[in-house]
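User: structure tokens for this one?
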Amino acid sequence: MDDGARGYTFGNNATAADRLLVLARVFDASMAAVLAELPARRWRRVVDLGCGPASSTERLATHLEVDELVGVDASPAFCELAAARVPRARFVTADVLAPLPVDAPDLIYARFLL
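Assistant:
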């Protein structure tokens, strides 16, 4: 699974994906609280910036009504895993520091990105 994407301190292989999924479970309640505070439940386009293996994308898909859900990550391996986990979303391999590779979103979500 490791494709050599740069910037992953802990790698972007299966072990790193498992680690991120554990971390996501730890912070699941706080993410739910943040999403509950959003001013709307329905969104035209939502982007999950630095989606990794899609734990946050999966939560966005279940908590929000979204016409188009897009995950963006620098790792093709993570985007492939994410697509298998959340088939209703689209995943794009791109550098999150570059212009977004999608039309203007209504909401951008980022977690564990910095």
